[in-house]
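Predict the 3D structure for this chain.
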Amino acid sequence: MNQRRDAILREMGLAPLWRLRGAGQVEVEPAPAEILPEPAPVVLESAPVRESAPRPARPDLRESLQQAAAPAVPAQAMQRSDTGEAVSGLDWDTLEARIRGCDACGLCKRRKQAVPGVGDRQADWLFVGEGPGAEEDERGEPFVGQAGRLLDAMLARIDLKRGEDVYIANAVKCRPPNNRTPEAAELAACFPYLQRQIALIRPRLIVALGRPAAQALLNEEVRIAASRGKLFSHNDIPVVVTYHPAYLLRNLQDKAKAWEDLCFARRTMVGLKAS
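Done. Predicted structure below.
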């Protein structure tokens, strides 16, 4: 393993732990996948005072976003739900009440409760995942299981914390049976809720965690490996695509790639705050 990759793995908490087993014998034991080291301080430029008017876009960044934006979506792409008109003017409390009582798709039949989202409602950062799992369905909050603990650790590595300038939501608000991937019709039915959340939050940057989240935001077929390191755009908001934490728990070798994606997102945010 070269020095650069070794350094990246140490950042993600995958460096080996050395333990003395006996006289003259040393054995290597891998660190638990869900544990990351305490975050090193990250120096970011101070964010300007939030104003009610739309933020001016940095000219060179806007140009790059327009070049990276998804091409026109073909006719057979995911069709949006008519729910959009019904929720387009809702405030936060009314929106969340509508989500909790939603029956726009079959996922409502087996849920214990819908999971609208959690965090700072004026956040600069919006993280969008796939859908609730079993623990999320029980507690009504996204990313509270093992994948949630990994997400919290990932946030800490770039000096972020759940609920502080961060909002976390999912592409679908109800748990798919057996945690399967949401179907296109389910993503379409739930998308107006996510779209309204984005309009209310007005984040500077969206991080799509996994393929379903990216496809819901970009409304096109997405391959994570091909999308990493690129800026996409959703309604002129930059979108960074990376792996879902649940995927990383099953594929430890890609944690280093996720760390690179977080660094890319952090650099993008610094540029947005400087504009």
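Residues 255-274 form the longest helix (20 residues).
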